[in-house]
Amino acid sequence: MLSKRSRIILSAIGTFLCLLSVVYVSCTKVGPPPSCNGVVCLNNGYCNHGRCVCPVGYEGTNCGTASVDKFIGNWDVKQVVIGSDNPPTKGITTNYSILFKHTATPTTFFIFNFLNDPSYNELVCVLDSVNTNNFYLDTMRGFNMYFDHIVIKENSRGSYNNATRDINATFILRHLNATHNWQIDTMSLYLKPHF
After folding, report:
1. Which of 48, 77, 170, 195 is 20 to 30 A distant from 186 in Cα terms?
2. In a 3-state reduction of DSSP, which class is residue 3?
3. pLDDT digit string, tens, across residues 178-187
4. By CB neighbour count within 10 A (0-12 exposed, 13-18 middle, 19+ buried), where does 169 fall?
5. Does residue 193 contact residue 74 with C-beta atoms inside 8 Å?
6. Does residue 163 share a domain with residue 134?
């Protein structure tokens, strides 16, 4: 059993700690959240604590920018075969230009002149719903997967870098080679805006 003196000391310490917690909370307490008065959010975005919360496919302070806009335009491509089940193919570098164009949705875009083939157009790319700087080739669409003896494999994707304004991508292809045998190549693509 605690003595009377011990109970008084414990009670004093408890009271002191309660007082400290009240002082701490009152010192760190923030004011009311910012108001949404005058905040206009576009494209079905909504205001929360003075800021716009944008729907998937839109970004910016007022949700006025389509997430795909950063991809749209002409790009210079440096393509390097970084992996292949045909060893002499590894390391082959190709330079060409491609075009990214809008589709009907703010979360997809088309690639034209894919693999430097002027007839290989309208490949659908889909933005990642969590990080709209990332995209992947839509391998569910038949035209994307099979074209002129080329099959685009899953995990073919790319990423836009906000700081450098370029794109790094990796595409995995299964295709017929010159001897009409199937081979799988993994290609690294570096894209910079074409001026």
Report:
1. 195
2. coil
3. 787 889 999 9
4. buried
5. yes
6. yes
Distances (CA, A) of 3 to 9, 25, 77, 124: 10, 33, 82, 79
Of the residues 63, 85, 119, the one at which a domain ends? 63
Q: Are residues 179 and 108 in the same domain?
A: yes
Joined tokens for residue 18: 């309660």
- Tens digits of per-residue pLDDT, 41-69? 999 999 999 999 999 999 999 999 999 99
Give strand ranges (E) for the chain.
46-48, 51-53, 58-59, 65-66, 73-84, 93-102, 108-112, 123-127, 134-137, 146-147, 150-152, 157-161, 166-176, 182-193
Residue 139 has phi, psi (to 5 degrees) of -85, 5
Q: Could you read off the pLDDT of 96-113 as tens digits, one per residue?
A: 999 999 999 999 999 999
> What φ, ψ does residue 88 adopt, rounded to 5°?
-65, -20
- The verdict on 114 and 39 lying in the same domain is no
CA nearest to 187, candidates 145, 158, 165, 146: 158
Number of domains observed in the structure of the chain: 2
Same domain? For 48 and 83 the reply is no
Question: Any idea how long the chain is?
Answer: 195
For residue 93, the tally of other CB atoms under 10 A from its CB is 9
Residue 136: inside a domain: yes
Q: Which residues of 94-120 are buried (b: 16+ CB within 10 A; e: fewer)?
A: eeeebbbeeeeebbbbbbbbbbeeeeb
What are the angstrom distances between the C-alpha of 147 and each of 121, 141, 150, 169?
A: 10, 11, 5, 20
